Structures
1.
Amino acid sequence: MKILAFDVKNYERKYFDEVSSKYNVEIKLVEHSLTEENVSMCKGYDGVTTLGLYKIGKNIFDKLKENNIGYFAVRSIGYNNIDIEYAKKIGIKVCNTHYAPSSVAEFTIMLMLIVLRKYKQTIYRQNVNNFSLEGLIGKTLGSLKVGVIGTGKIGKNVIELLHGFGSEILAFDKYENKEILKYAKYVDKETLYKECDIITVHCPLMESTKGMINADNIEKMKDGVILINAARGELMDIHSLIKGIESKKIGGLGLDVFEDETNIYHENHLNDIISNMKMAYLRQFPNVVMTPHMAFFTEASVQEMVTYSIEGLKKMYDGEPYEFELTALN
Ligand code: NAD
């Protein structure tokens, strides 16, 4: 099998080398993205993989099909940017990748702790020899009630870790998972909004989840609530977050992801003019901690991200069942 890998980062290269011999596939690595203009370079390959940072829709899939590409793998867990229905309609098989949820779950806990212990301001002060404690008083995670929305792989791991801190945990999901009941209580969304000190979301981005945290439900939350998002930026309505921070209804935000982060995050923009007013405005608040979509970024996750995307392409090519073949947005 011949595979063309787009968006290849230096930190992925050694894993591509390992996986090509493991599965006996030929992989060409390119650093740039897959676009309508360069899709003809896929001619002669059987499968394509991209990093999942930008939209792959009808136009690109049609051109992939014209170039006889039958298999497509996105090297991320989230696949909201891939038009799976259209790919399926024209006969291109698509899969995503998977990796242990602990990278994102641990990062989520870290965001909670950074916000709770006011570490952003602490580190700024430390750098200018201001060792005062005024204004930096925090709270312990174990003394708080935490709400987890979305109890899939990552949400479940977040709950397990929170249990270790001694937090009381309320959960909400469309589908309840019995294993969660050891550590958390499922409640309706209204109860979760009303009672929790910290709320973290771990749902996929879909039309039905876009803006699931918005002005209406922020209003129902406790004063000073802390919101955490290490899933997808668009799950939280940014305008409502800004209003909530300005009015002090929201006591802190930990955001690893941001609406319209594509072409900003994961690039060095040191000398560029970045056009994203909401990002710049929100970032300046002392109680808003933002990281550049890096919750996944551990050695183990990057290795698995590369390995399973190639394994997926190979299995689909060989006609074997593959657990992470995508047939619809879930
Ligand atoms: P998962 O599919 O295992 O779990 C998602 C859960 O959300 C499921 O239990 C599902 O039932 C639930 N859900 C869906 N719609 C819902 C709704 N309207 N209300 C409540 N629950 C709902 O996925 P996962 O592996 O846990 O990943 C979750 C998301 O995290 C991914 O979709 C991805 O966007 C994001 N992610 C971010 C990073 C990062 O680096 N920041 C890395 C990996 C994944």
2.
Amino acid sequence: MEHLVNAADGMKRAAAILRSGGLVAVPTETVYGLAADATNADAVAGIYAAKGRPSFNPLIIHVDSVAMAQRYGRFDGRAHRLAEHFWPGPLTLVVPLTENHGLAPAVTAGLNSVAIRQPSGPMAALATALDHPLAAPSANSSGRVSPTMAQHVAADLGTKVDLILDNGSCPVGLESTIISLVADTALLLREGGLDRSFAAGIVGPLINPKPDAHVAAPGMLSAHYAPRIPLLKDFAKPMPEGMVFLGFGETMREPGLNLSPSGDVKEAAHNLFAMLQELDRSGARSIGVAAIPHHGLGAAINDRLQRAAHGSKE
Ligand code: TXA
Ligand code: MG
């Protein structure tokens, strides 16, 4: 049977696979997720195995509503306000776990908090069909670039996943912004698909924890999002033999690709992972990247590029 199917056609099959403890790659507005029933311990173990993900790195659960979220996480006024404004959307909230939540223990990796997001589209519809949340990390091997197209998932995870739902390219293109509401001060754990200036009016200033602080998302390893070939950020020197360039706006060199010829950071975010994958597979020896402005989604783009530069194998 076909293993990569159109999302609209594959929903029934996807729900049946998830109900029986299988793994389905599901598109969201941010990136493709590798989904399993979050209450099924064997299914969740399958996610860690397929990705080669370290067991200390907890997963996000995807819900279809605030009501479903509250079965698993304790929502205070701030959580309600943020969810009301930005769900469904690219925002994950880390909140205290409820008692008797029923999640597989591996989902939270032993923490007493849980990361929750309400996405739009097929992922939320599948949570409704199961009446359970779906645990889903990005559908890539641990440490690699997140997939924004079904073909990326197929190339990386292949048959380790039972079904891939194809819904074209993900509109945002970067993972969700993660905010922790466990303490009185809201913490920005990961820059992501939401412009960070958004939340100020809702939860007050967001504190950015130091990279080594233990409160940070355990998954924010510095070597992450790495292409196979070396990546050089803010590259302004003459291009060495075998380098391809990832440009932005007027800063463009050949051979290469331009994240946004018009210099729009939102468009650049949408294109980032797909272009990194394409350049990585182009046969080039290294990738030089133009300086990206820090405003809006530029902060999240620079975060991913920083990690990609660290993680690439020199
Ligand atoms: O956009 C997204 O967020 C995508 C789509 C599929 O929803 N998912 C995603 O998942 O990026 P993943 O597993 O690649 O990243 C989740 C991050 C990890 O850095 C993890 O450490 C952090 O969330 N996280 C999960 N639970 C947490 C918790 N209780 N406290 C702090 N960080 C947590
Ligand atoms: Mg990931």
